[in-house]
Amino acid sequence: MKDYRLHPQERKMNIYSPPPGAQATDFESGLYYSGKAQDMNGLEEGVQFLPVMNAKKLEKRGPKRWVVVVAVISACLLVSLLVGFLVWHFKYRNASIQRLYNGHLRLTGTRFIDAFENSNSPEFAALSSKVKEMLIDIYKNDKNVGPFHKETEITGFSEGIIAYYWSEFSVPGYKANNLDKAMANIGAVNQAVTQKSRNPELRVESVVAFPSDPEAIKASRDNSCRYALHAKAGEVTRFTTPGFPNSPYPSNANCLWVLRADADSIISLTFTTFDVEPCNAGNDFVKVYDSLSPGEPHELVKLCGSYDPSYNLTFVSSKNVMLVMLSTDAVGRHPGFKAEFFQMPKLKICGGVLRGTSGVFTTPYYPGHYPAVMNCTWRIEVPKEKNVKVRFNDFYLVEPGVTVDRCTKDYVEINKEKYCGWREKFVVKSSMNTITVNFHSDRSHVDTGFSAEFLSFDSTDPCPGRFTCSTGRCIEKKLHCDGWFDCPDGSDERNCTCTEKQFRCNNGWCKPKFWLCDGVNDCGDNSDELQCLCPETQFKCNNGKCIPGVQKCNGKDDCGDGSDERKCNNTAKTVHCQQYTYKCRNGLCVSKTNPECDGTADCSDNSDEDNCNCGRRFLSKKSRIVGGLNSEVGEWPWQVSLHVSSRGHTCGASLISEKWLVSAGHCFQDENPIRYSDAKIWTAYMGLHDQSDRSNKNVQQRGIKQIIRHPSFNDFTFDYDLAVLELDSPVTLTNYIQPICLPDITHEFPAGKYLWVTGWGATQEAGTGATILQKAEIRMINQTMCNSLLTNAMSERMMCVGILTGGIDACQGDSGGPLASIEDNDRMFLAGVVSWGDGCARRNKPGVYTRVSQLRDWIKQKTGV
Ligand code: 4AZ
User: Fold this and answer.
1) Are strands 306-307 and 299-303 parallel, antiparallel or unpaired?
2) How far is Cα 591 from Cα 839, in angstroms, rounded to an integer?
3) What is the pTM of this model?
4) Which contiguous run of DSSP H or E holds residue 61?
């Protein structure tokens, strides 16, 4: 593979039932009278309802009785109001709610001794009881706090002396806000309190409190799963979740590991194995805190799911303490984690002066996570006659809830501009020979930081012999105004004069004429698709045909390509079976596009959701990996490497079940002297990441029992370029080995859709294969355009996919491998199989792939999958 880029009415008062025989009309009018009521002697007491025709009488006699009615109603209303108020006041307004806070404070007037590390020591007990008293005194001094205090516990001490605590309050709901405000300000209250009376020598300073989550307090209270570990100089200390690795961690547990280092040292903690319940499957998680108080402001990271050991899970503390918390729910049986930590001297300097014409610099402990509370400044100086630019090659300063346009927490600041979040490679230039780079991390949430290089350049010619993008990147001159974006910001395509092979978009960009009316918004403002729209009352088919709008979704293929019957509300209607409709096992057809394994049962027999144990990735991934060069371990668990005994990796393949692979037919064509059609010469490696590490424990190796090439495979045109391979024994599915879903014959992969191709093929045309599994994101191109770009070499079993600017493509050795599409539910489907191409990664020469949906029935027939 070459290069890559890589959301009753029954009122309680005066309800009368109509007497038997009452006139319906009277009843309906809402008024009726009883025989007794008709007695003008008024023998019956109370309220009487009169017939409509007696309205006049009512007018005469009414006022007195109305007064009674109104009085009764008013009295009842008043009583109800009063009862309501009392209920609200006593039941709700006064109802107590629990409030929990975590915090820490500084103690002066005493020295830290080792015994304070042990919560069972008499020294700990003595000091904690004094601190607790002082804390309660502080609370008592605030009327919004003191009366509601229930319990406080001192959970630990560290050098400083810092005391860690939690406090529980029971407060009426309507006073909870006042309590929150008072606790947020508790440090100020403390300042106003004199603590001389009880503890003349011991003083409390810098009291901090923050709302705590109940799990953290539960963990602090639960001594059954609490560990205290102190790093030993020059040694690595290891710890694991209870039962690891032979049995899963306990359910409904709250475990705490208190990690300590010597004074003036800091802690480096690494999770070497991490496998807890997947983040979306339950509520198990691990949190790491840069404090002994498990509070959000000091949370360095929250982890769930599983990570491959190669994933960087190293975290560094800012002081000599760290807290690891495991919280689990009732479900999910996973092994847990294995971690190690050691102490190291506290970083004295961060940043510095960098001189020369070029150089590199990184955030502290890169590629490990940078510590919290860091401020680093690099002052870069290049020779006087030059200017300086800084290129960030890797940039991860991601923090939950922070938007990249505000950068309120961790950031890099250059020339008064702040950068944060995840960014692709970018360059910042200075118009001088110096530049200052500031890096700031706040108390919570850390990331891996950045790796950057500085370079000097000539201000008059920043890119000698090349075009300078506005971002500072240098690109080949011929790429300027060629209709393709080569600069990250598209600056190479601005202010261009279009050639005769190009058309001008409304936004001024020049694009190749053959992009006009191809159904893809190439201009960005859709102007390339406007001139070719059908009249307003009509529908434009995918094949360009215009049909009356009423014919869309009428259950008939009026377009001829079925496009008018797709995306019909995307609800599954049972329709007449046609070529493009999904056929359920019971023979009925549904109109929905791509209904298979999308998490919704669309067929009346649910057959569209059968056999959906495919296309899932179980190793935790951060979306930020997209665009990287090397794949992550376990990122493409269906990827297979096919080796020929005499020449090693030869072709790719995809796992579709425990026993069957799909590959390209042309991989098994005999070529003297090698009999590629002979199953015996092939070995399949599943779960492989690195070709040089095939004995890795995640890898399963199998021989091939039989190779079934598509009988219509044409070795001249490469039509029907498909084969299925049976493994000599089934593989065991793991986090590293999973089958990919096969698309139904009706499955649609629309033009413009991004797909992923993976393999160990050549990294450039005529180049050598990759050692680490490569990935590239490429785009589906419409068939008409494929035909024009590839001189009518396309059959219906082929599709072309690529990036027409060139530079990203499959290449030799990728053949047979998967072209995967991320569909609904995050499931991945095998859209294509790498087949052929006109060279590799050439401009306007997309790669060609076997259209798997077209050969779906054949695969089913041969493999049963
Ligand atoms: C090959 O030789 C090959 N650029 C595979 C894919 C492509 C070219 C060549 C597509 O296996």
Assistant:
1) unpaired
2) 40
3) 0.66
4) helix 55-87
